[in-house]
Design brief:
563 residues, alpha/beta, Rossmann fold, 2 domains, 8-stranded mixed beta sheet, 18 helices, disordered N terminus
Length: 563
């Protein structure tokens, strides 16, 4: 082959270099804005820090087996390295790096976080955890003037010592994320509460400085509004959330991680509690893992769209809207338990003859258009929609479509048109928009829509706290009345179900059932469903798998019996 003249060869070389450069720039552009795992051997290090709901207070390792999606997490995870310093006056510390395992018989979010991550990425992971209940960001965790238990210097020392051990062993590592869950105690100090955002911004900056990690990403966990503090200290909780969002909205390397929808421990007395407990901690860890994976560009697999469309062209569709709180969401109804029940396995199979759309946990999970009716819960859970749809079909109700809107971390006040001072928790506008858009979408497909009713399961937590129990009837009727006006459907039926209200001396003087009956009596288009003969339940407030199936059937019976 004849050699190219020098000038032509130079031009060819320049063209080749330009093509290579453009290819490199295109590849860089495709991955810009998200971290990429450059290799599968560098250890990804995550820091977990905060107060009691980061520690794992009021959780029990023995209870893990009660929640099928997390079975087995009571055992050590030998592939995950773990270093820790937990507690206040009496601290429990690791002996250097250990295999990840529960500490002091408690369940922390790191257990499910690690289990989720090790299934999603090949790189090894390590977790450093420093947490103590009842500690403040304004004081204990203050980087500049730590007071009390001086958590910031303690945590910094723990992290540095753990990383130094990697250095000594020649282990390559990368600080990958900082999971922070704290704020409840700052709301009891006016100055700390008012300046939570400012203090959190400084906290993040100091960690990045002191660890020489300017690009360290933070994951800020939402304070759980399902706890009693989410009710009786609503304005204070809201103030902390504003401070958190002030930081996550302005810092491109800080993410706000919703957690209000996770499970909460069921306490004694009226049943309300301050801590996530076992189930909530396990779900809490999954939330952090999913937030991290999202930043890697990994999304949970999308559900399949409903194909083919099951309704004849131009046919009228009967639309049923299901709405409510933790039991309408299906907090403790697990698909694994459903499979063990008689005729339960059939409900696990997608039903392509019923179109289903949903908005769960205040928008944390939403459908992409219409799907076949099937379990769609956040943690292998499901709601009463499965047995509700089956019961309607068994009674030959034609052309059924179901739309579901829930937020298990809400109270009835969040659903009212007026809402509360915690403006970001107001659900009414989003709920009405969801119903409108659902109807409009069916009409756009050429179907007349019969909105058969809204099936609302009243707030379980509202039944356990006196002020909210007193206000429940008025708030439900405000929701009913305004929804009819805003949807331009004055004859819209509401089916309001109520499980047995909390039986406790602290609230028994408020006969909420009688007050609801009185409020509904004046409206013939409101059906009060007293779901008082549920299958026996282990816990207050929450309904288990068998009970959720029963509830769906009970809702269908109420509809079928309506004249």
């Amino acid at each position: 082959m004849r050699a190219l003249p020098h000038r032509r060869a130079s031009r060819a070389l320049r063209v080749s270099l330009l093509i290579a450069l453009l290819a490199t720039l295109a590849a860089a552009s495709a991955t810009a804005g998200r971290p990429v795992l450059a290799d599968d051997t560098t250890v990804r290090v995550f820091i977990f820090a905060g107060q009691s709901n980061m520690v794992g207070s009021d959780s029990k390792v023995a209870d893990i087996q009660r929640f099928p999606p997390f079975a087995g997490l009571e055992a050590p995870q030998p592939s995950v390295k773990f270093a820790y310093c937990l507690g206040r006056e009496e601290k429990t510390t690791s002996d250097g790096w250990e295999p990840l395992h529960p500490v002091n018989n408690t369940v922390g979010p790191e257990l499910s976080f690690a289990a989720t991550l090790t299934k999603a990425i090949k790189a090894p992971i390590a977790i450093i955890k420093v947490a103590a209940g009842g500690t403040h960001l304004g004081g204990d965790w203050n980087p500049d003037e730590p007071t009390g238990f001086a958590m910031y210097p303690l945590a910094l020392q723990t992290v540095r010592e753990a990383l130094a051990e990697f250095d000594e062993q020649g282990i390559s590592y990368k600080l990958e994320g900082f999971m922070w869950h704290q704020g409840e105690n700052d709301m009891f100090e006016a100055d700390y509460m008012q300046h939570y955002g400012r203090n959190l911004k400084n906290f993040l900056a100091c960690w990045r400085r002191d660890l020489n990690a300017p690009d360290l990403r933070f994951y800020i966990g939402e304070l759980c509004t399902k706890t009693i503090w989410g009710m009786d200290l609503r304005p204070r909780m809201y103030a902390i959330s504003l401070g958190q969002k002030e930081v996550t909205d302005s810092d491109p390397l800080a993410d706000y991680v919703p957690t209000s929808h996770v499970g909460v421990e069921i306490g004694g007395g009226v049943g309300l509690h301050y801590h996530y407990g076992t189930l909530g901690q396990l779900e809490h860890g999954v939330n952090y893992a999913q937030a991290y994976l999202k930043n890697l560009g990994q999304q949970p697999p999308a559900s399949a769209p409903l194909e083919p469309w099951p309704y004849p062209k131009g046919s009228s569709i009967k639309l049923f809207v299901l709405a409510g709180h933790r039991n309408m969401e299906g907090e403790r109804a697990f698909v694994q338990n459903l499979a063990e029940q008689e005729s339960g396995a059939a409900l696990l199979k997608p039903n392509p003859s019923i179109a289903f759309t949903y908005n769960l946990a205040g928008g944390y999970r939403t459908s992409q258009g219409w799907e076949a009716l099937a379990p769609t819960g956040l943690y292998d859970t499901f709601g009463p929609e499965l047995s509700f749809g089956r019961s309607l079909q068994q009674h030959d109700v034609p052309h059924i479509a179901i739309a579901k809107f829930t937020h298990s971390g809400s109270q009835i006040i969040d659903w009212t048109p007026a809402g509360s001072e915690a403006v970001s928790r107001n659900l009414y506008p989003a709920f009405i928009a969801f119903v409108r858009e659902t109807v409009a979408d069916l009409e756009a497909k050429g179907h007349p829509v019969e909105l058969e009713g809204i099936f609302y399961h009243v707030g379980e937590n509202d039944m356990s706290w006196g002020p909210f129990r007193t206000g429940a009837p008025e708030r439900v009727m405000a929701l009913v009345s305004q929804s009819r006006r805003d949807l331009a459907r004055p004859s819209l039926r509401w089916f309001v179900s109520q499980q047995p209200p909390t039986d406790d001396p602290a609230v028994n003087s408020i006969d909420v059932t009688a007050h609801l009956e009185e409020a509904f009596a004046a409206d013939p288009l409101v059906v009060h469903i007293k779901a008082f003969d549920l299958p026996p339940q282990e816990k207050k407030l929450v309904i288990d798998t068998r009970g959720i199936v029963w509830l769906g059937e009970r809702l269908a019976q109420a509809y079928l019996a309506f004249p």
